[in-house]
Design a protein that fits this description.
The chain is built from 9 helices and 11 strands. By secondary structure, it is α+β, with helices and mostly antiparallel strands. It has 2 domains: 147 residues, no CATH class; 123 residues, no CATH class. The strands form 3 sheets. Strands 1, 2, 3, 4, 5 and 6 form a 6-stranded antiparallel sheet that branches. Strands 7-11-8 form a 3-stranded antiparallel sheet. Strands 9-10 form a two-stranded antiparallel ribbon. A hairpin with a 2-residue loop joins strand 1 and strand 2. The protein is extended.
């Protein structure tokens, strides 16, 4: 499928953009000069008086803006519609191919759940990005054919695969990081709960100290261990259920509306396409 090119489907976009920018500059050039003054500049009052005095009357300015609106709105609305129509073709082809490959997906308010991934879309810009539990895996990317969507999905899936901790290693890491986060705040872990975000910080510190993982992940953890990587492993930990010894089994707990509004919650539930996301705040021992 051929990409959209300004020279064919959108021949006048570049010229229309330049013309609109020129017209706006003519209208507001003098006003915009006031923005460049630093706070407290002694020359500003005189400059402001001059510019404001020379402003056209409100009805004249309003008429000029209305003319620009009537002239340019249809052109740019046309550009947006071309983008949306083209993107929808690519998206439809991508989803059809996904279904043929046996993939699972369902529509959401701002895109699609694709397996364990979230595909967030901006049809008007023909852009998408992939996320896990609302955490960004791939940046916003222009889509010019369905193959790019397949490529981005593969990139996102490979990132998740790269950070997987398996079996005993996963349960050990979650338990150790939970215990360390708790002990720093309480004398005993008995009956105590811990913010998931605090466990994440311990997880990140442990990951950076682990030579094998540091080598495997490379520049991915140069600054911060990605939250999506922790949440992906946390979701996988939740699926282990009774495979985790009861004495070390941790469960997730919601927080109050106030705690969630303060940003103390994290999103979980991304593994299964049909599951809805949930916001959880705490980890607590089973029976705690």
């Amino acid at each position: 499928m051929n990409p959209i090119t300004p020279s064919t489907e959108l021949p006048s976009l570049k010229d229309a953009q330049k013309e609109l920018q020129r017209e706006l500059q003519k209208l507001f050039k003098s006003v915009c000069t006031l923005i460049d003054y630093k706070a407290g500049d002694p020359d500003f009052p005189a400059a402001a008086v001059k510019v404001l005095t020379e402003l056209p009357k409100g009805e004249v300015l309003g008429e000029s803006l209305e003319l620009l609106k009537n002239k340019f709105s249809p052109q740019f609305e046309s550009f947006v519609q071309v983008n949306i129509q083209a993107y929808k073709r690519y998206e439809t082809a991508y989803l059809r191919g996904l279904k043929e490959r046996g993939g699972t997906f369902r529509e959401t308010s701002n895109g699609w759940r694709i397996g364990s991934l979230m595909l967030e879309t901006k049809p008007a810009l023909a852009q998408v990005r992939f996320l896990y539990n609302r955490q960004t895996l791939t940046d916003w990317t222009d889509i010019r054919d369905e193959n790019k969507l397949v490529e981005l999905e593969q990139q996102a899936s490979e990132l998740l695969k790269l950070v997987e901790l398996e079996g005993d290693e996963l349960t050990e890491w979650v338990w150790i990081c939970f215990k360390k986060a708790i002990i720093e705040r309480y004398e005993s872990i008995e009956g105590q709960r811990c913010l998931i975000q605090d466990v994440y910080l311990e997880f990140e510190a442990r990951m950076k100290r682990d030579t094998a993982w540091r080598k495997k992940l490379g520049t991915m953890i140069k600054e911060r261990y990605p939250m999506w990587a922790f949440l992906y492993n946390l979701d996988r930990y939740r699926t282990l259920g009774t495979k985790v010894p009861a004495s070390r089994r941790l469960i997730l707990q919601t927080g109050s509306q106030q705690e969630v509004s303060q940003g103390l919650g994290v999103t979980v539930g991304g593994l299964v396409t049909e599951d809805d996301y949930k916001t959880m705040c705490y980890l607590i021992m089973l029976g705690g």
